[in-house]
Amino acid sequence: MTPAQIEHYVDAAAAALALPIAAEHRPGVLNYFALAAGMAELVGAHPLQVTDDPAEAFVPIAPRGGQA
Nearest to residue 6, comparing CAs of 18, 21, 65? Predict the structure, then answer.
């Protein structure tokens, strides 16, 4: 997505959800959405095969060393 497309999408989604975005938060929201859109492009570029199965369950584990 182009930066203009990202701005339009974020504005439309916020309006549809009646979700105000504070002016000081807008740059961060746009940056995060651009990052998420880039990740989605990578995932979407990988074609699935008929033999591909979804994972049964994702079970997160605690990090080593007690770090959060």
Answer: 21
Determine the average pLDDT of the residues in 20-39.
Answer: 96
Q: How far apart are CA 40 and CA 44, in angstroms?
A: 6
Contacts of 33 (CB under 8 A, 6+ apart): 6, 9, 10
**Residue among 33, 45, 28, 32 at smallest CA distance from 8:** 33
Where are the alpha helices (H) located in 1-68, listed in sequence order?
Answer: 3-16, 26-44
Instruction: Give CA–CA dist 6/25, Å, rounded.
Output: 15
Locate 61 and state its tokens. 């584990």
**pTM for the full predicted model:** 0.67
